[in-house]
Amino acid sequence: MDGDEVERTEDGHHIVVDGRRWRATDDSIPEALRAELVKELMRARRLVRTRGDEVRPFVQDAKVALGERGEPWWEEPSEQGRRDRLAATMRALLRHRETSTICPSDAARVVGGEQWRDVMPIARDVARELHAQQVVEVRQGGERVDPEQASGPLRIAPGPALER
């Protein structure tokens, strides 16, 4: 095995590092989104060294989004497990992109893989919940909108309660 390869269990669900098994990243996440989430995880880990326990939820969000924590990605998720992973993905992507917005489909693609379109109604619902908690703002045409009244394409921006 060369230096870049990681040993995986036969089923592909775990990696083996120094004899210890760790849950592998969900292999259905599109590469560009996986790369963003990995960068956010690395940033969050660096922040833990300087800011301590207050930023451990950032690491948790990135790991849940990647499928490394929470319900196993290779099993059919529960409704709550899917919602938790969508929320974690939205928070992690927004932290990574800082002031930029994300589309609910970004989170749906992370959580739903090839069936991401089936996850879109839940992703929009999770965005509405996070909007109500002021963690995110739902926008259309660059303007903040009431997600209960909005139809059509939405963007999600960081809200005042998103911890950074």
Can you give a write-up of this model?
The protein has 164 residues and is α+β, with helices and mostly antiparallel strands. Helices cover 47% and strands 13% of the residues. The chain has one domain: Arc Repressor Mutant, subunit A. It has helices at 31-51, 56-66, 79-97, 104-112, 116-132; strands at residues 7-8, 14-17, 20-23, 136-140, 143-144, 155-158. Strands 1-2-3 form a three-stranded antiparallel β-sheet, with no helix packed on it. It has a three-stranded antiparallel β-sheet with strand order 5-4-6. α1 (31-51) packs antiparallel against α2 and α3 crosses α5. It starts with 6 loop residues before the first strand and ends in a 6-residue tail after the last strand.
Provide a compact summary of the structure.
This protein has helices at 31-51, 56-66, 79-97, 104-112, 116-132, and strands at residues 7-8, 14-17, 20-23, 136-140, 143-144, 155-158.
Q: Judging from the principal axes of the Cα atoms, what is the shape?
A: globular
CATH class: Mainly Alpha
- How many angstroms separate the termini? 38 Å
- Write down the CATH topology: Arc Repressor Mutant, subunit A
What kind of sheet is the major sheet? 3 strands, antiparallel
Taking pLDDT < 50 over at least 5 consecutive residues as the criterion, the unreliable ranges are none
Output the number of helix runs: 5
The percentage of residues in β strands lies in 5-15%
> SS-based structural class?
alpha+beta
Number of strands: 6
Mean pLDDT: 94
Helix content: 40-55%
Spatial ordering of strands, largest sheet? 1-2-3
* Total count of domains: 1
- Fourth-tier CATH superfamily name: Winged helix-like DNA-binding domain superfamily/Winged helix DNA-binding domain
CATH A-level architecture: Orthogonal Bundle
